[in-house]
Amino acid sequence: KQPLSEQSQLNSYQKMAVSHKEGPALVLAGPGSGKTLVITHRIRMLIEEYGVAPEHILVITFTRAAATQMKTRFEELMEGQHLPVTFGTFHSVYFRVLKHAYHYDASQIIGEERRLRLLSEVSAQVEPAMAEEGIESLQELLSEISAVKSDMLDISHYYSRTCPEDTFREIYQVYEERLRKEQVIDFDDMLSLCFELFSARKDILSGWQRKYQYILCDEFQDINRLQYEILKLLALPENNLFIVGDDDQAIYRFRGARPELMLGFEKEYPGADRYLLAVNYRSSEKIIQAAENLISHNKVRFRKEISGTGKDGGPVILGSFPGTGEEYERILSHIRSYREAGRAYEEIAVLVRTNTGARKLLGKLMEYNIPFQTRDTVPCLYDHWTSGDIFAYIRAAMGDESRTVLLRIINKPCRYISRTVFSGSKVSLDEIEAMYEEKPWMAERIRSLREDLRAVGRLSPYQAVGYIRKTIGYDGYLKGYAKERHLEENGLLEILEELQSDAGEYKTFAAWFSHMSEYREEMRRQRENSAADRRGVVISTIHGAKGLEYPVVFLPDVNEQVIPHEKAGLSADVEEERRLFYVAMTRAKEKLHIYSVKERYGKSAVVSRFVDEIKSRKDTGGS
Ligand code: ATP
Ligand code: MG
């Protein structure tokens, strides 16, 4: 779709970057300035003007989605001509190297899902209390392990955010042992192994150096130390390393990315050329202005000039709502009117800070039959372990007295009922209570549990969840658990609030449970939809939308605690959150809606400081 004549429309700075000849070069520029475009045009330049064979060109980036998108953009530019240029992620390229050298097969590489499964086993083994923690805390643990490996950190000096130091160290070590024992490697090992291979075997390295004589890398601010070390080896001896990036969009520090490596590029390569691009072609003037105001509040940054092309899209639309219910209703009604005004659904994106935000919205979209696509996997509210506890209570109240269900609830909160109570052949609470005639205190505990369950069974879903939380005391149990395990209490309570408010939409348990299975079914269908024929409103985390652009963008729940996230206590963390919000805003081409709420799940909420910051520029920061 991209007209070939666009080449002539490149501005003079872009043209200079595109026609860079040899040696290292850095393109440092803001969002929408054509960095990715410059890469695709440069590939063509290398092939058509400089006579480089396509198979000697390596275009490398971080996510598969980004690599695919770049390949598509390039093929459009070449009018569908297929050329053997390599487009890959760091992992896919480095895996190819390992496969050649060690004959690894793909089954030995464990992906995110298997890593999480392994990690959940390992952490339960090291710290039994972690067994019931959900996917989210495991994902965080995994990020930390990645950061340690990819930043080549010394584990003995590492300070963990998710668990006490010695627990983390032990989990890390047991995890590593398990990998060795099962003869598998994870994504981060791929990098270390590749680095070791290149360092030890000059013959192998030089083979790959001859293969990839021109290397182009997008989103370079996300690179971690190990990826960089390997890239430097690979680029030798010519160092035809062309990198593009924007330090203001560095949002992967928590995974070990080191944006300062990009800013230090010219120290690493003293002869490197630097190209600056200063025109944002993507967004309307007002959006650019607001985003620049925001980012000017960061102190640690390389300041870049950026101007727009005079596109008028109207002002940034700010909105504040009593609660998320009203907020999501408004988003839906806007989506419908954009649609009526002739926009395609896929031109609209809703970008959220965390997955929690997306779930309710997905439910609403399904209800109104609006097609949508999700960019990253949104963990389901109903799959969270706290939801699981609540469902176990409800199931028990509905008469399911199976051992798994009862074991799950007897001591949440603690009732001093021993698990061994369920070890005999008797399972129903009736029978068990009768068994304990001799120990009246135990019989009493079981009787009180039965009364609780009976009460739950008589209530509506909404009341039942409330009863379990407040009267039975599940909330209190959860708070204690969170404290003991260093988890975020608010995040967990929020899941319960969300679950309870979801329950409020159904009259009976049966209706609620049947909605859940429909929801799961719909999500499964969504996942199976191939990436190619994706249609519908885009629902994504901000991280998942990096590098992409949409005519209409909604940013819901722009409140303190959400963005900046409650975890971001230190100012460096707030700066990262600000960059994240900057990335979010700069995805929008024409219409940007920034919404906040006054109350989130029963608690009053404060509008994010970022909403104020977009209104005026702060001129102290930057360098
Ligand atoms: P990000 O930092 O978000 O990754 P980017 O710098 O990679 O942004 P691109 O995605 O390459 O920016 O370009 C942004 C948009 O501007 C694209 O739609 C692109 O086609 C358009 N664009 C870039 N340069 C020009 C130009 N010279 N003339 C017209 N359109 C342009
Ligand atoms: Mg880009």
TrEMBL record:
The keyword Ligase does not apply. One of its GO terms (molecular function) is ATP binding. One of its GO terms (biological process) is recombinational repair. SUPFAM superfamilies: P-loop containing nucleoside triphosphate hydrolases. Belongs to the helicase family. UvrD subfamily. PANTHER family: ATP-DEPENDENT DNA HELICASE SRS2 (PTHR11070:SF2), UVRD / RECB / PCRA DNA HELICASE FAMILY MEMBER (PTHR11070). This is DNA 3'-5' helicase. It comes from Qiania dongpingensis.
